Structures are given as C-alpha cells and as structure tokens.
Amino acid sequence: MALSQTFKSKYGPWALVTGAAWGMGTEFARQIGALGLNLVLVDIKAAELAQVAEEVRKTSGVEVKAVVTDLSRLEFIETLRRNTEGIEIGLLVSNAAYPPVGLFFEQSLEDKLRMIEVNCRAPLMLVHEFGAKMLARKRGGIIMMSSGSATQGVAYVASYAATKAYNLILAESLWDELRGSGVDVLAVMPGATRTTGFELSKPHLERSTLAPLNEPKPTVAEALKMLGRTPSWIPGRRNRWTLTLAQRLLPRKQMIKLVGSNMRQWYGK
Ligand SMILES: NC(=O)c1ccc[n+]([C@@H]2O[C@H](COP(=O)([O-])OP(=O)(O)OC[C@H]3O[C@@H](n4cnc5c(N)ncnc54)[C@H](OP(=O)(O)O)[C@@H]3O)[C@@H](O)[C@H]2O)c1
User: Is 192's C-beta closer than 6 angstroms to any atom of ligand 1?
Assistant: First the structure.
C-alpha cells in the first residue's frame, strides 16, 4: 500500500493540529494534507490561520476547517467539541506552545502560569478528549510536541523546559499504556528549529554553535514517519547523536551546565 494510503487508513479521515498558523504547526498541516487527511487547524491568530487553511485546501484538495481559539482558556475544549461534531479525528497533533525566554525571576507569574495552561493543561485536555474517542474506535495517532529541553534543566527556559518534560513523559507513558490498542503515541523532541516563534526569541546564534538548527520541513516529516514506531524521537541525525551521546557521557550536572552555557550565549546580555 502507498505511504499516504497506509497513513490515511491508520490515522484518517481527519487530523487536528494546534498552533497551525505558523512554524511547525503549518508544516504539519501541509504534510498531513498532502497525505490526504482532512484537517481541523487551531490557533489563536485568525488571519494567519485562514491563510494557511486556504493554502492547504488549494495545494492538497482536502477539507480544512480553521478554528480560532485560545488554548489557555478552559472553554477552548467546548469550542473544539462544537467544531468537530460528526467528524472523526484520527490524528491529534498537540503542537501549540507558549515559549517565552528569560531568567525565571525576571518572568512574571502570569507568564509562568500561561505556560502551564497552554503547554500542559491544553495538551492534557486534548489527549483526554480526542484520545478517548480513538481508543473506543481502536484506531488513531497522537503526536505531542516536546523538546530537547525536556530531558534536563535548561537556564533561561526553566518553566518552558519543565512543561516540555510533562509532554514527553505523558506521551511516553501513553505509548506504553496504549500499545496494542490501535492508538499510536509519539513525543517529538526537536532541538532549536528555524520557526517564526524561535526567531522572535532573538537568539544570538552567531555566538554559539552547540548543535545545528533544525528546519521545520524535515523535522515534521520525521515526526510523521516515526509515529507508531517509537515512544519518542529527536529529529535530525546530528541533533539526535549530539543529545544522546552527551547524555550518556556527561554527568547530569555537566549536561545542565553545558546546555545552560549555550543558552547564556544565545540570550545573555
Ligand atoms: N522552534 C523550536 O526551536 C522548538 C524547539 C523545540 C520544541 N519546539 C516545540 O515545537 C512546537 C512548535 O514550535 P514552533 O516553533 O513551530 O512554534 P511557534 O512558531 O511559536 O508557533 C506556535 C503557534 O501556536 C500558537 N499558540 C500559542 N499559544 C496559543 C494559544 N494560547 N492558543 C492557540 N494557539 C496558540 C502561536 O500563536 P502566537 O504566535 O500568537 O503565540 C503560534 O501560531 C512547540 O510545541 C514548541 O514548544 C520548538
């Protein structure tokens, strides 16, 4: 069977992607559309989301619904429930995140709580809502965007990294709980990736080259390919080897200091 037919029969007929207005969410929308799945695209930015929806409709010929909602608000789930009535979501891509960069005590409590809402509570609610229906149907896939920052402490993104650890552990645990149920789960752990969101954080990339920047297109292609094959995945061969080797060779304390020193170069004054 062709790849797109296998993918569609396992994870179709509809996919829901959060944070689809730009970055890797847009790339997920493009590549999933190209595989023939209809799409519910979710984001907080109406104009950009409408553009992406229009582009994917035109290039892939699939049905695309754009739903504008704020994932930090509990009511978002009701909005999605209304907009997915009568639609079978076979693939959930929990991609949206709130990723402010800064020293912990220079960030407001409001910012920190928003990270918990968008990066932890919303993914949890999405999985609870759509994963339960997949389990009942014995068919489906869930991709949760974690991060390379999820596996050790990271200065300058302390809260964000902790929220990404939540996604990693949740996805890996579900991968095991749901093994054999027909529902596949994958945590994706990209290193720094050239998205609008990342560029808006204004890193001084010229000061440090610890690992190469990922590009959204191959990162998303790898994520879609690895769903159903492994609990978690670090996209990009160099990133994967660098992180895996460093974690095996360095004591945890050194690993935290190494990653932190890269962050200081990128974001320090
Ligand atoms: N890019 C990287 O270097 C990198 C590295 C590791 C992991 N990741 C993870 O990969 C995923 C995608 O990253 P990305 O860089 O592509 O993200 P991005 O460029 O920042 O895009 C995320 C999208 O989600 C939207 N969003 C944020 N908060 C929302 C909310 N409350 N309700 C609805 N939509 C909301 C954003 O809108 P606004 O722009 O208005 O906030 C944006 O359109 C994230 O989970 C991120 O943590 C990224």
Answer: yes
Is 166 one of the catalytic residues? no
Percent of the chain that is helix, strand, coil (3-state, to 5): 55, 15, 30
- Ligand 1 neighbour 123 (Cβ under 6 A): no
Other CB atoms within a 10 A radius of the CB of residue 175 amount to 20
| Ligand 1 centroid distance, CA of 98 (Å) | 6
Cis bond before residue 231 (omega within 30° of 0): no
* Measured distance CA(231)–CA(253) in Å, rounded: 26
Residue 1 has pLDDT above 60, yes or no: no
CA distance 5 to 238: 31
User: Which ligand 1 atom is at minimum distance from the Cα of 193?
Assistant: 3
Rg over CA atoms, the chain: 18
Residues listed for the chain: 269
Is the pTM value of this prediction over 0.90?
yes
| pLDDT one-digit tens code per residue, 174-231 | 999 999 999 999 999 999 999 999 999 998 988 877 777 999 999 999 999 999 999 9
CB 136 within 8 A of CB 181: no
Is 147's C-beta closer than 6 angstroms to any atom of ligand 1?
A: yes
Give the pLDDT score at 3. 67
Q: Which of 11, 98, 156, 160 is flagged as catalytic?
A: 160
